[in-house]
Write a structure and sequence with these properties.
Blueprint: H1 3-37, H2 44-55, H3 73-96, H4 98-102, H5 106-115, H6 118-122, H7 124-127, H8 140-168
Helix pairs in contact: 1-3, 1-8, 2-3, 5-8
C-alpha cells in the first residue's frame, strides 16, 4: 500500500473511531442526565420524522408529534445522529489538523465540540418547530443550556475518542 493510501486509511479510521466514540459519550451523558436530573431524552424518531418530511419538501414541522409518521423514522433519526457525529469528526480533522489531533489537546477539541451547538440551533430546532435557538419554547434559555451541555459532552467525547484513536492507530 502506498504512503498516501496508508495515510488516507489512517485518517478514515481516526474519523470513524473519534466520531463514534464522541457520539456515544454524548448519548451516555444524555442518559445520565435523564436518569439523574430528570431531563427529557432526545426523541430521535421525531428527528427521523422531520428528515422524512424535509425529503418531501417540508422544512419545518410546526408540531412534529402530530406530523405524519415516516417509515423507519427512529432508525433514520439515529443514523442521522451518528452520521453527523462522523461528519463533525471529519470537520474537526480538517480544521484542527492531523498533527494537533495525533497528540490530542483538551481545550481546542472540547471547544470545537461546544461550537457545534450552533448546528442544531440553526437547523434541527427550527425544523422541529422550536424556532432558531429554541426561541419559541416557553423556556428558551433552559433549552439552550441543555444544548450547550450536550455539545460540551460531545466535545469531551471527541477528546476521549482522539486519545483512544491516537493510541490505537499508531
Amino acid at each position: 500500500m502506498s504512503g498516501i493510501c496508508q495515510e488516507m486509511a489512517w485518517i478514515s479510521a481516526w474519523i470513524v473511531v473519534v466520531g463514534l466514540v464522541a457520539t456515544a459519550v454524548m448519548d451516555v451523558i444524555s442518559l445520565l442526565r435523564v436518569h439523574v436530573l430528570g431531563e427529557r431524552a432526545m426523541d430521535w424518531a421525531l428527528v427521523g420524522r422531520w428528515l422524512g418530511h424535509v425529503l418531501r419538501g417540508q422544512l419545518v414541522l410546526t408540531n412534529p408529534r402530530m406530523a405524519g409518521q415516516v417509515p423507519y423514522e427512529r432508525a433514520l433519526g439515529w443514523l442521522f445522529h451518528y452520521g453527523v457525529g462522523l461528519a463533525l469528526a471529519a470537520l474537526m480533522w480538517a480544521i484542527l489538523g492531523g498533527e494537533t489531533l495525533q497528540q490530542p489537546q483538551l481545550v481546542p477539541i472540547v471547544g470545537f465540540g461546544a461550537a457545534t451547538v450552533v448546528l442544531p440551533m440553526l437547523t434541527m430546532q427550527p425544523g422541529l418547530g422550536m424556532g432558531v435557538a429554541a426561541r419559541k419554547l416557553p423556556a428558551p434559555w433552559a433549552a439552550r443550556r441543555r444544548s450547550l451541555v450536550t455539545h460540551l459532552s460531545f466535545g469531551f467525547g471527541l477528546y476521549l475518542g482522539a486519545v483512544m484513536a491516537a493510541a490505537a492507530l499508531r
